[in-house]
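Many introductory courses stop at the sequence. We go one step further.
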Amino acid sequence: MRLHSKLMLVILLLIISIGGIFEVTFKNMMETNLKHEIGSKALSVAQSIANMPDIKEAFQAENPAAAIQPIAERIRKQIGAEFIVIGNTNEIRYSHPNPKRLGQKMVGGDNDLVFKGESVISESTGTLGPSLRGKAPIFSQGEVIGVVSVGYLQTDIEKEVSKIQKKIFFTTLLILIGGLLAALLISLNIKKAMFGLEPKEIAWMYQEKHAILESIHEGIVAIDTDGRITVVNETAHKILGVPNETLLRGKRIEEVIENTNLLEVVRNGQAEYDKEILIFGDVFLANRIPIFNKKGYVIGAVASLRNKSELAQLLQELSHVKAYAEGLRAQTHEYSNRLYTLLGLIQLGSYKEAIDFISKEVDVTQGFIQFLMKEIPDPIIAGFILGKVSLASELKVNFIIDRESSFKDIPYEISRDLLVTVIGNLVNNAFEAVIENNTGEKRVSLFLTDLGKELIIEVEDNGKGIDSNYNGQIFKEGFTTKDKNSNAGIGLSLVQNAINSLGGYVTFSSNVGEGTIFTVAIPKSIGDVNDGEKGYRIVNY
């Protein structure tokens, strides 16, 4: 069913529903009001008759009906009542519209309260049918001597209500016809305004546009000629640090992002590609394109934003994966060697030595694992260190984890991935440094502590050291003193970026031929440590 047909049908049903409710409600109100009005009128007439001297005197006569019947009938005809019945305390009629029923007992059974001296309005069924009655007691010298009952038939009341209901029906019919004409005009205008599209088609196009915008990895922001935002996707919300629930549409672009140059694109109609823009300290590549209408006029502009640091993040994640893989490979290789050793001892019949070998390996491994579980309970960091221990064993490097280390109090908001990046790259660099040193023991030590307001990470090696001429360059991406390879010059750059993200700093001291010490301080509360521009310091011991 098309839109204009739906509109007409809905409006028609709405008007019919409202008309029906109005008719029923008004009928009930009119019926209630009529009953109240007629009941009050009947009661008033009954009280007036009960107070008439002629009626009271007639009760003393031998034949009260002879005097009361003419008076009651005259009044009944004047007020249009269906009946006026007057009776004594024994409910014997002295008046009735049908003279044949004079002297008979009154019907209805609603005189009890009246004989107690009360005037009432009641509904009951008498000889003429269901009726609404007003009843009043007749007093003589303070005692009730009779009752006056003035009544109107329910059928007469319903006839009055039906007359009013017919008027309401014709009024509702006129409103219905007017509503149909209005619905027709509205539906035609809406169809024209929507270029003949149906709501389903518009909804599908909107959902398609929304899905396309959200599937794009770049942040998308569009403005109109006044510089007000018309479109912004979820990625743009993340870039701007604004929750998705916050409405940005309708705000001026300058209030949300400074120096976007989108308004300039609107003015000159020239597209701009791969322009760098700084947003909250991060560098983004922006493409800005004007939006034209069918007549060729600029009606807005759209910008796409892509974080330039995503490549560094990708390399960081790749480094983690590689480190995990190397740890697993080293551990597999180390355990293979141990199994071969155990196999040889068994084949030689050296069972006691085999048992001693197994016991020693179990004690060492379990003792070290228990130490890690107690002092470094975070599974990500502990597991990473355990992998590095296996790698060091394969590389024939004496990797020492200081038994005074304690890394228990790590705030939840500090990223474990960034801590792994810092520890892993510093340890890897230390391994490479001692491997290049062909003389003496190859030794690397790691010390971790969470005492005080900072997390301290210290990595020391006895490698060949760093030439003082390179002190200001080692943290730059791509710089290396080693032979060029795919990963050279990335490790310390990733360390620097991770430390900057955590608000900390790194110090290092190095003597050529003796080794290097890197010390990292990361605040448990953001802003407590690194208040300067540089995230590293050079210390000479």
